[in-house]
Design brief:
By secondary structure, the protein is α/β, with parallel strands linked by helices. It has 13 helices and 21 strands. Bound molecules: flavin-adenine dinucleotide.
Length: about 425
């Protein structure tokens, strides 16, 4: 086996390898450098590129997104998820046997309001202040313009539709989230392009937005290199652990000797965690986006609509709609009909959005993999085989938002310091 690089730091700073340079890995690398550690970033692709989930998400820095996807009574919807392959949440039949254990845990985690509240309370500790933390990171990385702190909007067609989400808003309120309600005329005034069927706005002022998540992550990754991190372009395959201590990260290109490592490989973290003794039920909640590069109408505030379960807003590259959940694994081919559904919904949200000419290249599609654990919480904590390996993945729907705080926590664990928030809810050993 070729040795990609031989790193050792006798007498020097503790040498840590950060595996993966998505939002979570890049933030972890920056914070590890800040903590005085010697950092190598191991990433086979271009940081922030389309292969990574951090590239194509909706850019919401929604510190209020604390309600897990599964809520009480979700089990009643399972037949619908199986019957409608193009619904906002779909389960592919062929994948069902593999997904079943994850699905049962997913449903159980949201069985009662008390369980949902426990998850929300924990998530709030991770997400609170996310817009501020990201604004600081972006400024440090030279891209302050990519983070906006102007609030986010949920649009409903009626009070009854809002009431259907009452449990979620009740749970959010108990975690300290505050919002403003915009009645019909206020919503019209603030969002003149939004279709008139939306008659109630729920505006969350504390939340923020990233104008180009891919470019943001690329800038964070460049900043790590400019701040002294090394980069190895290879895929991690496992660990050499001897006597309960990490000796090296194994890669396709050889070993990297090190003192500690963080697994930040998003939806592909499962086998690495298992190699460090922690078998965790990580699943991909596949999602799609569509970008209309030549759009001429759209929202003033990043907007989620309850009927289509999608988020729409301007990115630097055009008007993006992102959403949908498809449980079909990491390897199944994309179903681009889902992107077409997002596009159709986007047009119905903003009727003055002119249809692109047939064959237009101005509409772009993307599929990504939300790294999801069934209880809606990430894994942040030591691996079972050695505390030298830190798990930092599984942020599901909120990984961009949660990456800033997670980076700080991962660095604290790598440095052997006390974590700044209680990590028990995120303990990888909970499964
Ligand atoms: C449609 C959609 C919309 C979303 N909207 C939002 C939103 O608005 N707000 C929000 O907060 N979140 C959102 N998310 C979720 C968010 O995008 C993810 O939770 C987040 O990007 C995960 O970041 P990550 O760094 O863990 O993973 P990734 O961004 O996937 O990065 C993982 C990196 O690890 C690398 N890697 C993989 N395997 C290895 C290996 N063996 N060795 C070395 N490197 C490896 C990969 O190449 C990749 O670069 C959305 C997701 C989707 C799909």
């Amino acid at each position: 086996m070729t040795v990609a690089r031989s790193f050792s730091s006798p007498g020097g700073a503790r040498h840590v390898v950060v595996i993966g340079a998505g939002a979570v890995g890049s933030a972890s690398a920056i914070e590890a450098l800040r903590a005085g550690l010697r950092v190598t970033v191991l990433e086979p692709g271009e940081p922030g590129g389309p292969h990574a989930t951090s590239y194509g998400n909706a850019g919401w820095l929604s510190s209020h997104s604390v309600v897990p996807p599964a809520l009480p009574g979700a089990w009643r919807k399972v037949p619908g998820w199986l019957a409608d392959p193009l619904g906002p949440l779909a389960l592919r039949w062929r994948y069902l046997p593999r997904a079943m254990p994850w699905l049962l845990r997913y449903l159980a985690s949201g069985w009662t309001e008390a369980r949902v509240q426990r998850t929300a309370d924990a998530l709030r500790t991770l997400l609170a202040d996310a817009p501020v933390l990201h604004a600081r990171l972006a400024a440090e990385a030279g891209v302050p313009q990519l983070i906006e702190q102007r609030g986010l909007l949920h649009a409903y067609r009626s009070r009854a539709e809002f009431d259907g989400d009452a449990l979620g808003w009740r749970v959010r309120q108990r975690t300290g989230v505050q919002w403003e309600e915009w009645p019909q005329d206020e919503l019209r005034r603030r969002e003149p392009d939004l279709d008139a069927r939306y008659t109630l706005g729920v505006f969350v002022p504390e939340a923020g937005h990233c104008r180009d998540p891919g470019r943001y992550v690329a800038a964070l990754a460049r900043h790590t290199l400019g701040s002294g991190a090394e980069r190895v372009m290879a895929r991690a395959t496992g660990f050499r652990i001897e006597g309960g201590r990490l000796r090296a990260v194994l890669t396709e290109a050889g070993e990297i000797a090190c003192d500690a490592a963080a697994i930040c490989a998003g939806a592909r973290s499962g086998p690495l965690a298992a190699a460090a003794g922690s078998a965790v039920p990580l699943e991909s909640e596949r999602g799609y986006h569509v970008v209309v590069e030549d759009a001429t109408a759209g929202p003033r505030t990043p907007t989620m609509v309850a009927d289509g379960k999608l988020i729409a807003h301007w990115m630097d590259g055009g008007l993006r709609a992102a959403g949908q959940v498809e449980i079909a694994g990491l390897e199944a081919a994309p179903d681009w009909r889902r992107a077409a559904i997002l596009l159709a919904h986007l047009r119905s949200m903003f009727p003055s959005l002119a249809p692109s000419a047939p064959g237009s290249t101005a509409v772009k599609h993307w599929l990504g993999h939300r790294p999801s654990l069934p209880d809606g919480l990430p894994c942040i904590g030591p691996a079972a085989a050695t505390s030298d390996v830190v798990l930092a993945f599984g942020h599901g729907h909120v990984g961009l938002c949660g990456s800033a705080r997670t980076g700080r926590l991962a660095a604290q664990l790598l440095a052997g310091a006390a974590p700044e928030i209680p990590l028990a809810p995120f303990d990888p050993a909970r499964f």
